[in-house]
Design a protein that fits this description.
64% of the residues lie in helices and 0% in strands. The protein has 345 residues and is mostly helical. It is found in: Mitochondrion inner membrane.
């Protein structure tokens, strides 16, 4: 093949790239066409020079674009910083709006912006403190007796470790008490998915119980600041209890709910002793935490004693719900067959 023929083939394939328009400032003025006629080394050199110059122009464009993006990013950061400085002068974290998810701004009934993200205004309530605190399920069958004495044995190390430090005891109690509702609700949820059946409202009821117990913990965290070894104990106890309760619920839900019923009876006893120490002046009756005032709709001048009273009433309601759930199983029925006591704190 002659040099002229080779040049024409190369021109046919590379013509659009070599002679096409280049979208860059450097290519604003048209370049003279490269004459390959005559072929030879001069023609090949001209082609490679044009290719290299085109690549260099594109690289220059990419560099300019990246600088522009960097400038836009810097401008966005500057705007976010300015927005963070507005308001009360504090630097707040700015959430990216890339996904179009805007955090909701809620107002309390007093017209003040809601200050809690862990619960919403419609989740606040006034607890029923008139509930009977003395009710007790007398164990008669073997399974009930095993559940009862299991709880009694669990109380022994707790009494030894905490003595009468009821603030720390309450904190530990709530980290454990919030587990059963979550485990039971989760297992009922999975059962509903596997069997394509309704849950009778019990999934929501048990998750409500878990959330209510968690709010107890959020409250007592403001009262009793846990030490490092108490936090370590929580990790150990919760890890053991979660797995034990999980297996227990798989084997026998009626036994698991009965255990929780007796645990709540012990919680009522612990909070009653807490109240005795508060009334006797052994524990300072400090003002109620702000989160407790909003969650239980307490008066603005509420104290720790008021908090303990409403928490104790919550535990009494959980006692009734779990003994009720256990009785349903003892009667040979499924929870889904009986409407769940939703909203029953």
């Amino acid at each position: 093949m002659s040099t002229r023929a080779a040049g024409s083939v190369l021109l046919r394939h590379l013509g659009p790239r070599v002679f096409g328009p280049v979208l860059s400032p450097a290519a604003a003025s048209p370049r003279p066409p490269l004459a390959l006629a005559g072929g030879g080394e001069r023609g090949w050199v001209a082609v490679w020079v044009r290719l290299l110059s085109t690549s260099a122009a594109e690289a220059k464009d990419e560099t300019a674009a990246s600088k522009g993006n960097a400038g836009s990013t810097a401008a966005a950061k500057a705007e976010a910083a300015e927005a963070a400085k507005e308001g009360d002068g504090k630097r707040d974290k700015v959430v990216s709006s890339y996904w179009g998810v805007a955090p909701s701004k809620l107002m309390s009934k007093d017209g003040v912006e809601w200050r809690w993200s862990c619960f919403r205004p419609w989740e606040a309530y006034k607890p029923d403190t008139s509930i009977d605190l003395t009710r007790h399920h007398e164990p008669k069958v073997l399974l009930d007796k095993i559940a009862y004495w299991t709880v009694k044995l669990l109380r022994v190390p707790t009494d030894i470790f905490f003595q009468r430090r009821y603030g720390c005891r309450a904190m530990m109690l709530e980290t454990v008490a919030a587990v059963p509702g979550m485990v039971g609700g989760m297992l009922l949820h999975l059962r509903s998915l596997r069997r394509f059946e309704h849950g009778g409202g019990w999934i929501r009821a048990l998750l409500e119980e878990a959330e209510n117990e968690r709010m107890h913990l959020m409250t007592f965290m403001e009262v009793a600041k846990p030490k490092w070894y108490e936090r370590a104990l929580v990790l150990a106890v919760q890890g053991v209890f979660f797995n034990a309760y999980f297996l227990g619920y798989l084997i026998s839900p009626k036994f698991a709910h009965r255990v929780v019923g007796y645990l709540e009876e012990e919680a009522i006893h612990s909070y009653t002793e807490y109240l005795k120490d508060l009334e006797a002046g052994k524990i300072e009756n400090v003002p109620a935490p702000a989160i407790a005032i909003d969650y239980w709709q307490l008066p603005a001048d509420a104290t720790l004693k008021d908090v303990v009273i409403v928490v104790r009433s919550d535990e009494a309601h959980h006692r009734d719900v779990n003994h009720f759930a256990s009785d349903i199983h003892f009667q040979g029925m499924q929870l889904k067959e009986t409407p769940a006591p939703l909203g029953y704190h």
